[in-house]
Amino acid sequence: MKPQPNWPSLQPFIHPHTVQVEELDFLQHVNNKTYLSWMEQVAWLHSKSVGINHEAQKQLNRIMVIKEHRMSYHAGSYLGDELLIGTWLGEQKGCCLRERHYQIIRESDGITVFTATTEFVCVDLKTLRPKPIPKEFIDAYGDQD
């Protein structure tokens, strides 16, 4: 019996992905920078799924930008591996900062191959200065804390 994914208690946004040849490095496992690309892709897919798209960002004159990434590589991923790339929102820190978490699980054996946390800061699109996270950005995800 394969282990069950160790997702958080809330339901994460999950995007399935099969490792492609162009994502490999010379060691024939997924290149480290590819995980960063997957993080960006799944975060954006999650945001769009709750209605936060470029148009909403323009209307609210706000965007979340990356302040810091913390990434941990736990096991390798290889050509053809079927992965579950999960993301969920974490703690809001003050008025302008919010965490987003990531976990990538290999479906065949239930092993977590990667985890990460990103800290985002909300900024004004015109001035690029920190601004409070709009209520619309918080409410769109529902109760995720």
Main attributes of the structure:
145 residues, alpha+beta, Thiol Ester Dehydrase, Chain A, five-stranded antiparallel β-sheet, 37% strand, elongated
Written description of the protein model:
It is a single chain. The protein is α+β, with helices and mostly antiparallel strands and 145 residues long. It has one domain (13-140): Hotdog Thioesterase (Thiol Ester Dehydrase, Chain A, Roll), CATH 3.10.129.10. It has helices at 32-49, 54-60, 135-140; strands at 13-18, 62-73, 82-93, 97-106, 112-124. Strands 1-3-4-5-2 form a 5-stranded antiparallel sheet. Strand 3 (82-93) and strand 4 form a beta hairpin. The two termini are 31 Å apart.
- Might you state the CATH topology name? Thiol Ester Dehydrase, Chain A
Number of strands: 5
Overall residue-averaged pLDDT value: 91
Largest sheet: 5 strands, antiparallel
Q: Looking across the biggest beta sheet, what order are the strands in?
A: 1-3-4-5-2
Rg from Cα = 16 Å
User: What is the helix content?
Assistant: 10-25%
List the helices and strands and how they pair.
Layout: E1 13-18, H1 32-49, H2 54-60, E2 62-73, E3 82-93, E4 97-106, E5 112-124, H3 135-140
